[in-house]
């Protein structure tokens, strides 16, 4: 699936140089990695740069509401078995960040690119991907993002006419609807714990029936779950030949097994066999700080990111049981969405029995939420106070986006 | 209220539960139980009939297409009308509020008939979407403290003579009509654009619904410490943002 590398035009080279210079200035000014500003400058000099940079690569796009950064990383590890990989591993997933990441990939064979849900169709047009992995879609930051079904519709339109192999989750009705406009789909039964954004048929609006854990069908139009060729089954993934391959990850939780199953199916599309792909995924211990266990002020803290109701649900299922202490931290800054109403779509009753400390800008929203759920908690002003308050044991710290960044900074991660 | 306890009906969670408004159900349930009431929560999916024997019906916000589907199914069902005739309370939010009116504009850009339980008509605004914290004074006839909430809508709702505004905004948009009204109410039917969810931000409104159901003037006090702390913080934040 390789193409011969085309040398970049003078304009594209200038754009890459200008982008790198801007990134260096941004880094020197202490404003992060500079990848986004660098990409913006580069795209300004050459708006076609993204497609030029991707021209020689076998590109995989990865998009979803949850799990896209981790799955991007898992696919990148797997594809390294076949050649050099360039990837936006740190989650800068809009065109500028992607451009910046790819500008370091002149000698790479594969480009593994995480794409923000809203930008998938556009990026897919620009980079002509060989494969697109679609994991799940659910409510997220509704005060600033498009409606969830609208995103599925944009995916559907964007995938029409794409020549990419689409690797899609057969257990998420919105993803199935989006992917089924594509002529070449590999269905993966990857599971989807959160079901509250898919009770009505994405196609006709009828009520979806779920007679058992896996089946779903529309009572009105018959739209339903496609037959998967890859199946996540407990700790194994079953490939299209019926062989079961054990998934052994350092990353915790069911959702990461689902991510690994999708990654294995994606790697197979590039000729990497599942056992090799899965073995390579085992080396991933943490992804941009997520799942990292850090020691801070004499306590061990596992850092967990959960940005929306579906993410919190998966996170609750992977934390250690009571009496493991838990820190919850929620902010509502721009990148989080400024409306905290979604906290009420999370079943915090599942935390009964855990000693809980709540921190973050919106700790009072969490306090009322937990009070109504009948869960005991303590409101703390800071991480330090929370650590002093909580009983011994490794702490599970669950935070939404900017609260997670705050936590990482506070513990020096 | 029946002898078996308080029946709280959560209308169409499959279509109208996208913006955290099920918190309103949780708050009503919790505060009723804290007063020693037995509570039965009934979640009614859109392919099931609306029970007519409920005490409090809560209707939430949803996306544009689910809103149209919900309106079609509620019109066909007719249960909410019978419930109101039986004296039940309906408290609705955002898309649910628009559905209770005479009509609204649906996802296809067409005028969609509502249930006519509130004398209001909604259209789609052409300006920027109304998103942000809101602060408003509630109709003094209801004798409630300031309303705090979060709005996120494109709708403009005109009130007819058959309803009173639920509140007058100090900050934010509310009904989006430019005259400062927010929400509407008449008898036992209420509508608001406020999320937050609104009953978590304004537990006194949840108590009002309980008092109306029980036909009492007062309820035993409960520990409102965290609600009050949240209210104080949100009111201060909204005021600061506006200044």
UniProtKB/TrEMBL annotation, chain A:
* Protein's GO biological process: cell wall organization; peptidoglycan biosynthetic process; regulation of cell shape
The family database entries (SUPFAM superfamilies) matched by this protein are listed as: MurD-like peptide ligases, catalytic domain
Q: For binding Zn(2+), which residues are annotated in this chain's numbering?
A: 201, 204, 218, 221
Domain called Lipid II isoglutaminyl synthase (glutamine-hydrolyzing) subunit MurT C-terminal: residue spans: 305-403
Reactions catalysed, semicolon-separated, are:
beta-D-GlcNAc-(1->4)-Mur2Ac(oyl-L-Ala-gamma-D-Glu-L-Lys-D-Ala-D-Ala)-di-trans,octa-cis-undecaprenyl diphosphate + L-glutamine + ATP + H2O = beta-D-GlcNAc-(1->4)-Mur2Ac(oyl-L-Ala-D-isoglutaminyl-L-Lys-D-Ala-D-Ala)-di-trans,octa-cis-undecaprenyl diphosphate + L-glutamate + ADP + phosphate + H(+); beta-D-GlcNAc-(1->4)-Mur2Ac(oyl-L-Ala-gamma-D-O-P-Glu-L-Lys-D-Ala-D-Ala)-di-trans,octa-cis-undecaprenyl diphosphate + NH4(+) = beta-D-GlcNAc-(1->4)-Mur2Ac(oyl-L-Ala-D-isoglutaminyl-L-Lys-D-Ala-D-Ala)-di-trans,octa-cis-undecaprenyl diphosphate + phosphate + H(+); beta-D-GlcNAc-(1->4)-Mur2Ac(oyl-L-Ala-gamma-D-Glu-L-Lys-D-Ala-D-Ala)-di-trans,octa-cis-undecaprenyl diphosphate + ATP = beta-D-GlcNAc-(1->4)-Mur2Ac(oyl-L-Ala-gamma-D-O-P-Glu-L-Lys-D-Ala-D-Ala)-di-trans,octa-cis-undecaprenyl diphosphate + ADP
Where are the coiled-coil regions? Answer: none
Provide the Mur ligase central domain boundaries.
Answer: 65-267
Enzyme class comes to ligase
Which pathway does UniProt place it in?
Cell wall biogenesis; peptidoglycan biosynthesis
What's its EC? 6.3.5.13
Active-site residues, record numbering mapped to chain: 339
Keywords in alphabetical order:
ATP-binding, Cell shape, Cell wall biogenesis/degradation, Ligase, Metal-binding, Nucleotide-binding, Peptidoglycan synthesis, Zinc
- GO function terms (MF aspect): acid-amino acid ligase activity; ATP binding; carbon-nitrogen ligase activity on lipid II; zinc ion binding
Similarity remark: Belongs to the MurCDEF family. MurT subfamily.
Q: What does this protein do?
A: The lipid II isoglutaminyl synthase complex catalyzes the formation of alpha-D-isoglutamine in the cell wall lipid II stem peptide. The MurT subunit catalyzes the ATP-dependent amidation of D-glutamate residue of lipid II, converting it to an isoglutamine residue.
UniProt protein name: Lipid II isoglutaminyl synthase (glutamine-hydrolyzing) subunit MurT
What is the originating organism of this protein? Streptomyces radicis
UniProtKB/TrEMBL annotation, chain B:
Q: Which residues bind substrate?
A: 129
Q: Where is the signal peptide?
A: none
Q: Which Pfam families match?
A: GATase_3
Q: Which GO terms describe its molecular function?
A: carbon-nitrogen ligase activity on lipid II; glutaminase activity; transferase activity
Q: Which residues form the active site?
A: 94 (nucleophile), 195
Check the record and name the InterPro entries matching this protein. Class_I_gatase-like, CobQ_GATase1, GATase_3, Lipid_II_synth_GatD
Catalyzed chemical reaction(s): L-glutamine + H2O = L-glutamate + NH4(+); beta-D-GlcNAc-(1->4)-Mur2Ac(oyl-L-Ala-gamma-D-Glu-L-Lys-D-Ala-D-Ala)-di-trans,octa-cis-undecaprenyl diphosphate + L-glutamine + ATP + H2O = beta-D-GlcNAc-(1->4)-Mur2Ac(oyl-L-Ala-D-isoglutaminyl-L-Lys-D-Ala-D-Ala)-di-trans,octa-cis-undecaprenyl diphosphate + L-glutamate + ADP + phosphate + H(+)
- Asked if Calcium is a keyword of the record, the answer is no
Keyword Hydrolase (UniProt) = yes
- What EC designation does it have? 6.3.5.13, 3.5.1.2
Chain ranges of the CobB/CobQ-like glutamine amidotransferase domain? 7-202
What the entry lists under PANTHER family is as follows: DETHIOBIOTIN SYNTHETASE (PTHR21343), LIPID II ISOGLUTAMINYL SYNTHASE (GLUTAMINE-HYDROLYZING) SUBUNIT GATD (PTHR21343:SF9)
The protein's role, per its UniProt record: The lipid II isoglutaminyl synthase complex catalyzes the formation of alpha-D-isoglutamine in the cell wall lipid II stem peptide. The GatD subunit catalyzes the hydrolysis of glutamine to glutamate and ammonia. The resulting ammonia molecule is channeled to the active site of MurT.
To which protein family does this belong?
Belongs to the CobB/CobQ family. GatD subfamily.
Subunit architecture: Forms a heterodimer with MurT.
Q: What name does the UniProt record give this protein?
A: Lipid II isoglutaminyl synthase (glutamine-hydrolyzing) subunit GatD
The record lists the lineage as: Bacteria, Bacillati, Actinomycetota, Actinomycetes, Kitasatosporales
